[in-house]
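In practice, a research group might receive sequence data for several interacting partners and want a quick structural hypothesis before committing to experiments. The following worked case mirrors that situation: the sequences arrive first, and a predicted assembly follows.
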Amino acid sequence: MNVLAQADTLPISEPEIWWFALSPLLTLVGGALLLMVVGALTPQWPRGLYAFVSAMIGGAAGVLAIFNWDDISDNGPATLVGGALAFDTFAMWSTIVISGAVVLVSMLADEYIRDTPNDGPEIYALLLVAAAGGIVMASANDLIVLFLGLETLSLAFYVLAASNRRSDASAESGLKYFLLGGFASAFFLYGIALVYGATGSTNIGEMVTSLANRGDSGNDVLALAGIALLLVGLGFKIAAAPFHVWTPDVYQGAPTPITAFMASAGKAAAFGALIRVLISGLPSFRDDWQPIIWVLAVASLVVGSFLAVVQRNVKRMLAYSSVSHAGFILVGVEAAAHTAGEADGGMGISSVQLYLLLYSVIVIGSFGVVALVAREADADLSVFDGLAKRKPLLAGAFTIFLLAQAGVPFTTGFIAKFGVIQAGVDAESYGLAIIAMVTAVIAAFVYLRIMVAMWQKDVEDDAPAITVPVSAAIAIGFAAVFTLVAGLYPSLLIDWSDAITLVR
Amino acid sequence: MIAAIEPSWYLIVASLLFAIGAFGLLVRNNPLVMFMCIELMLNAANLTFVALATSLGDINGQTAVFFVLVVAAAEVVVGLGILVSILRRRPGATADDLAELKG
Amino acid sequence: MLAAEVTHAGAGAFPLLTALIAVPMVGAVALLFTQRSRPEFAKLLALMFSAVTGAMALWMLKEFDQSADGFQFVSQHTWIEDWGIGWHLGVDGISLFLIVLTAVLFPLAIVGIDPHHDEKPYLAWLLMLEAGVIGSFLSLDLFLFFLFFEIVLVPMYFLIGGWGYEDREYAATKFYLYTFLGSAFMLVALVATAMLARDDLGYLTFDLVDIAEGSNFAASTGRWLFFGFAVAFAVKVPIFPLHTWLPDAHTQAPTAGSVVLAGVMLKLGTYGFLRFGLYLFPEASVWSRSLWLTLAVIGIIYGAIVATMQKDLKRLVAYSSIAHLGFIVLGTFAFTSQAISGSVLQMVNHGVSTGALFLLVGMIYERRKTRQIAELGGLQKVAPIFAAGFMVVMLSSIGVPGLNGFIGEYLILIGSFQSARWWTVVATAGVILAALYLLWAYQRVFHGEPDEDNASFPELKMKEGLVLLPFLVAIVFVGVYPQPLLDRIEPSVDRLVAHVADNTDIDADPDYTTQRGEFEPEHGDDGHGEDDGHGDEADDHEEGEG
Amino acid sequence: MNTTFLEYVVFFAASVMMLGGAIGVVTMKNPVHSALGLVLTLFGVAVQFVAQEAHFLAAVQVIVYAGAIVVLFLFVIMLLGVDRAVDLSIEPIKIQRPLAAVMAVGLVALITAAVIEAGDAIGTLNPGTGIDTATVEDPDSNIQQLAQNLYNDHVLAFELTSVLLIVAVVGTVLMTRKWPKRSADEGSEVGA
Amino acid sequence: MLELVWLIPAFPLFGFLTLLLAGRKLGEPFAGLFATAMVGASFVVSALIYFDLLGMDEAERSHTETLFSWVPVGDLQIDMAFLVDPLSIVMCLFVTGIGALIHLYSIGYMHGDPKFSKFFLYLNLFILSMTLLVLGSNLLVTFLGWEGVGTCSYFLIAFWHTKDANATAGKKAFVTNRIGDFGFMLAMFLAFGAVGSLDYAVINDSALAGTLTVATATGIGALLFVGAVGKSAQLPLYVWLPDAMAGPTPVSALIHAATMVTAGVYLMVRVNPVLGAAADWVPTTIAWVGALTALFAATIALAQNDIKKVLAYSTVSQLGYMFLAVGTGAYVAAIFHMITHAMFKALLFLGSGSVIHGMHDEQDMRKMGKLFKLMPITASTFIIGWLAIAGVPPFAGFWSKDEILLFAAADSWVLYAIGIVTAILTAFYMTRQVIMTFFGKAHWHDNADDHEAQGDFKPHESPPFMVLPLIVLAGLSIVGGLVQLPSVGIIPSEWQHKLLDWLHPIVEFGPSAEERGIGEAIIVGTTADDLQIPLMFVAIGCALLGIVVGWLVYQKRKIKAFEPELLRDGWHYDDAISWFMGNPGRAAFQEIADEDQKVIDGAVNGVATVVRVSAGEARKGQTGYVRQYAGVIGIGVVLLLGWFVVIRGIL
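A structural hypothesis for the assembly, expressed as tokens:
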């Protein structure tokens, strides 16, 4: 970012900028620019180099985030750039998750994209920029900034979803995503406007202060209307029922590595934003929005798990299952709501972030396998028939991911679910916790179906050969190992996640 | 303040505009027109921002509108890009024609 | 008062319990690296690992201090500190024999049963299952228990689904989802238990002993929590009417699956009731006992009746399990030393005899490729030794004195009779039915003149006989001389009963030498002794008395 | 007062313009006409801005929206040749129109209800320091204030818009670049 | 010597194990001889212990030999312990004694059977169980034997299991016995709850001491009686015994006549103090059940044509007598009749077996006749048995039956009347049997074609292994009465009531017992006691009446035989039960099993179906039309706004 030009006549006092704190963001955006500019100026790079560079940039952002985390642990959280961004462990955690997703997805995307004329820097640049947008969402301390981050992420996603131009499904998913996303963004923006009117500011910190002093003001209704619309926009992004309708179509139609990115980084960013807005910004209205979170959670759990059951397409199954996972994460949000704005924040936020991290790895792994087995939108269940006989390791990895998604012990999926359930129970949301677990049982049927196909069906004779490129193998392998190892020994992650706080 | 018009009037008019936009998105089949409807909704939001900024006496609302304008521009560019790429392959396709993914 | 834990002298050096879980687990992993084309090597490897586990379990049995009532060989390490979760293992009289049974059953299943295809994954799943089951029995941490309790579903699912019979997919899925549904409630209850206990303890922990000894749940809270646990256990047991997964799973499972399922996995439910139901929620257990007793008794009668009409031999045995486990539940909720000791013993007995029954049914299937009773007949004539083996196992299952099944059943009934009289009366009637369905099945399968298909039924082979032999020895030994088992079981059971009694108004040690039981004579001519009879029993089972 | 009356006139005129244009967007059979309806709305909004002394925004609204965005729309319409009139009397999805009506009416009713309920309280909580309006002495005051706000409090957002524009650029490049035809898999690959 | 009591069961156990491991190698006839030797050894041990006891004071004649602690849990301490006292040793004597004879007989009877050694395996196991039953010092050890004999009975009834009827009969016996066990088990539970122990000593002492409440004693007594009804084939559970004749004849003799079926009587006597302490209705019920069973079974026996079925019903009837005795407080008489009955009924069964053997497995008496000359020893001994059971003095049966009738008369003249009618019927049907088999007209050659040896078929006398036991048993049947001669003037007093004296104090008697209402009933001073000698002549008269009428009907054919179908079919009682079990019972079971699938499993699958169907419907909502998705979102918006604005804001 270049330093702003200053007109002599305008005494503009720019806010202090703490560059290192912004370094992950700058790395990602700068990396995107680098890819585009250098990519444009040089001839076609050697195979896989774009992906490699992209992964390195993502990794670098993650590492920088870890340094920042350390800094926050030592010196406490702060806000950045005039209160526009929060600089806290919550933001850094999201940054790490999203950056990690960039790394893994870049590795997955490599071979996938190499087969298309898109094998240039653009896709990776968009990935990186989307990641930056996601990080802004999760760190935003200002609703306008949040909106801009959301738009950055969304616009990149729209394009990425439609990026496979040989596929009608990809185009359709891109358009659907775009129209619905624009629709939802408009609601979100309108919500920001109304909340702005009611609180006099878009800055979360100022919102909290002004709301705390609001007294007996009639403005509340305006704020409530605004919250309703904010929830629509965020609900859309996190794919909570009934705002999930786009999810299955887009997840199915989008190129599979992109789907993986949406389901991981997209969700992490959206949930980050949701928590920022609700827990950080609107704790004084928690009695109003908490029931809605409850309803959204239940609706997502039920809709996601029920509809997943009747699918034939594996990508759609996973899409619906991601809806039900959103419901699960909302259980954690609901738990956090109970103590929103209080000194002891409870376990909700930590559990949500832990879930997002663990789920991201699982879902990237899952879609990574799908990407290798069924390259296009037509990932019918029958494509997976007998996978265990053809590619035992791949089938084994997929089984691990599916078991993890089902919440089987000794996988991270279980730790994640346990975390949110624990948070929910801690907040005495017993009903929600039970509903969540029961729907998890229904959802388990879906994963079992895929496993049955892989392990117990016979291979179709005319099944095309599956090749497993090295980078994808590394990504999937890492995800599988992580899923198992962190499932077995999660205490470090839990320890870290417990340190997650929101700047106040 | 000099404006005699109650801020709530603006807000109500804006909500009408917003609703018309939303209605249009639901009933129109042409993706371009649907797209325009989204612009209507964004404009409604803008009007709301400005009205509230005026009543608050706070410049931030106006700044927000500025950003929304940029967003709208970027969105249009991207959206039209997607549309073009689709409509080039399938000329005259309506939103309802793009319904292969379902269930 | 019970907090004291006994760490066995000399056992501190070697983490025996951890090894009991780790060895089969390592074996499962090791199997992954064997060659698919060398099944016999895989089998040898699996056998080795399971045999080592078995040997360690037997060594544990030998070293077990039978006079102590606390947990022994305790292994305790922090694991997930922030959530108060520890790697806490221990064994006491209640779990001891279940572990030994598990550790012995698996090598036998590995040696005795041939999966016919894909040996390597089959054996790996089996070993993983073993680790899971042993882990469940050893866990003294709620979280850890849940982990193992849940994880066993996975290998079992694959075993049924991969090596089962015609309807295996349906059965495996049903099994998985049904039991998973039960666990769903348990998970919530389990977390809530820890969370609510935190208020009493002052710190968050999932440690069973800490919570059980230190918490003091309000009655209504405890009941809800107990209910959550109970659902999971009730499905696992299974208690009527949550049983229908069992016949399907049993029928479709490969022989080893059925053996293990009946032998040890169902015990996870009844064991859970003892370890986590009664121990954690004595008040709620006592409060809800009428429900459990009633369901148990219904299960006994109902399972027997339905078993009688089964056409599929495996299904019949499966339904008989429902009846048998009804007895165990009955004993559990009788809260007397005899009944609970009987329940614990019966868990082992049922594992042995029903395990052996499934083994034998599996052998029949191997030979005849059918389980339909109608297609069998006259086997005793062509295979008398086989029939004799079946007969002994069957008699054990019926509960004929001198064999193991009787001892457990009898202890359960005699103990239950003292505190849950009328339920016990009905349950005792179930003993009649057990004879009916098993003998009828035996008659149809073994008696009569063999037809053409059955005339060539091969006699018991040497190898099969050797696999069957330990079962038969156990059946007779326990039937004739159960004392070594009871001596080890009883202190822990007494401790549990005392714990329940401390927290409720149940009398842990009723004095039987004075008059207490009233058998209501039809004449009603004798009313004396009415009052002192009630003091000994739970205050809330008047419905049974009146 | 005259001024006030004038404001009413302006308000209603602008509102009619705005809403009429919006209705035009929705009801016009030809997308070109819809685009023109959009222009009308945008101008209406711009007038409303002016009425609220947001002159700079009004100007930008006209330039960016009417000048750039609508032109882009029209350009695409022409480029793709989709400027055909469509029959709007047919609705293939039966429930759609009632649904849309319910939604629209609900939206308006609820937000209006909220606005009316809020009533005089609007703008009372945490009011700002005031908006400088263009005066004869200082015609740039609004612009200056805006700029100051933009480059001070919202500098990060401002920079983010640049990122947004990068996305737009890269995205458009990606979407509209010509792909070599591949005869083998040309055609539908959409799943059944 | 008393400490060696464990040898009594140990020998048959050893025999059992040996045969189990090496039975086939031993083969015929050594397996049989070995088994016989084992039982014989047991008999010898029993006899030695008997003499040992004989030499002791009455008070010392009780010894508990504990082998090991069997089921110890808390207050429940059950030892594997044997109680040596006059009652148990008497039981042992006749169980092992008669058992040994029947073993011997079986060597001949089972000649040529492919499962020869297995038969003896089961027999030894049976003897083991039976000795455990009688020697057990507590209810549970008895129960072990009780069930053991039941199981052996099952094995042996179904010994020739390839025939469906045999297998069914075996199963029927087992299951019916289990119904009785139900009572037995509950009685144990009740006893444990009441006295904290299952030892006979503790239970009986507590009954004697009066610490056992009437209610408890009533419960224990009544429930044990339920057990006894099952095992001893009384109404209403007798149905299994006639069917049990499907087993080899020695089995019928040993198990279903002499020993096992009398276990119920033994048990009742064993706990007689409890019966004494129980409410009055318990012994009364026992007496009535016994009397009615005696009469009922006798009527059925009138019309049976199967040689063994007659004896089977006769056994039921005689067991009824024993229960009549128990119910009227004549415990000693019950034991006395048990012993004599064991002798003559074993004799009769073995005799019938000999006939069947000689007739090449023909059991229908209508196809026999005039066998006396062909099978003289069998016939002679059978006739002795006949006279004994008919109640002709001085044969054993007369004395025991007479004593029972005396006590019945003392208790109730109605019971006595039933008893005496039964006595007439007994004499009648036994006469019928003897005549149809050994006298009258020979029918066996009419049906020669049915037999294996066609043409030259001729019934023949049995081999020595079979004949020898017949002779011994015949001798015993003659002199058996000596055990307990009545107090009638002409008999020397030191010969009187030997058994009564021997069984004291197991069966209490005397004034103090009378006062407490326990022990042997005291009939001194009753009308019946005064009429003892006349009653004796009445009994003799009745026996002769039955014999004479039988002779007239079947030998002389002066009177037309009266054998209605109703009696032949056993009053249709068995049929009714079978019909009930087979039709409505089975249908009900089937119904429940079907409901399990339909309702309970249906509910489970129904839930799955509901999920699938509802999801399938919901799936249709995901139409693929982007506008509709927007509509869904729009509705969501309105709902959310409604909540926030209306419900939370305005209201």
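Before designing any experiment, note the following. The mean pLDDT of chain D is 83. DSSP finds six helices and no strands in chain D.
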